[in-house]
Amino acid sequence: MIAATTNALTQQVNTALSRTIDGGLGGLRHDVVADVRTKQVLREAVDAVVQSFSNHTRGYGRAQRIMMVYPEDPFWALPTIPGLYDENDYRVNVVEALQEFWQIKQARGADLKNGALVIYESVPSNSQPYVCYVTLPGGSCFGSFQNCPTKAEARRSSAKIALMNSVFNEHPSRRITDEFIEKAVQDARASFKGNLKEGDGPDTGIGAFRFMLEANKGRTMLEFQELMTVFQLLHWNGSLKAMRERQCSRQEVVAHYSNRSLDDDMRAQMALDWIAREQESPVLGLEMAQAERELETARLAGRELRFPKEKKDILMLAHNQLGGNANTTGINC
């Protein structure tokens, strides 16, 4: 009952939503990460948004409110922010700008259940290139997408890509609308070669996908991606299959987990599942290697990477609880 739902949800994230979730970069895909031109386009896109932010938030006087990025959207007028720029050359201080961006969103009524704090996580390393991840208040995660010679530069790199995605996410085209839902469902049918009669049935994967989209109408793509991460993890962990065996309906599963946040309890339970699997047949090392590769690919492509990062963190939690005895050959942890 639920397996088809899972396929529809996870594959649609990578197809129908990829062009918008990936920050308006034209859907940079993992198979061209190594291409020099692709990396250059990514850097240029990030720099363009950061420069636009800089141009629209400096030099107007601190009391004056001015437009940012999208002049047709007056509800996103931002104040000039003290301390936002480096003193010498007026380049935007992206770390401060990103934090201020989310504080302003909260002040304007955004529903941020865990507050507006932006969280940085540096990967322990004694040599370059250094890597840093940043988690936004809603849960989306991005990483430094450049080869960074210092930890500070890695922090700035992650803040740049997160700021760009935060800005793009506020554009009206990034919200789930009736038009978008119809287009996404149409793409889903084409992807799975489903017929029109079956497409929206409550017991089909496409129907569950439509149900999730309609339940999140008005939300942004990043907000929807955060929800999808939960279902991607449930599918990867085998939890959805277990619920199918208990005769849970798709609608019940979607309704329940749409209101569940990804917390330590959920991670701990998934880690226990992987410990049980490891004791039956060694699989943890291979899963960790794959999660590491997926995380690195997403990071260098400038994509939202909460799903592969959570996978790696859950597997590392299981690995540590096993006393570090799992076979992790070939993994750079």
Automatic annotation (TrEMBL):
<dbReference type="Pfam" id="PF14954">
    <property type="entry name" value="LIX1"/>
</dbReference>
<dbReference type="GO" id="GO:0097352">
    <property type="term" value="P:autophagosome maturation"/>
</dbReference>
<comment type="similarity">
    <text>Belongs to the LIX1 family.</text>
</comment>
<protein>
    <recommendedName>
        <fullName>LIX1-like protein</fullName>
    </recommendedName>
</protein>
<dbReference type="InterPro" id="IPR029270">
    <property type="entry name" value="LIX1"/>
</dbReference>
<dbReference type="InterPro" id="IPR051436">
    <property type="entry name" value="Autophagy-related_EPG5"/>
</dbReference>
<dbReference type="GO" id="GO:0005737">
    <property type="term" value="C:cytoplasm"/>
</dbReference>
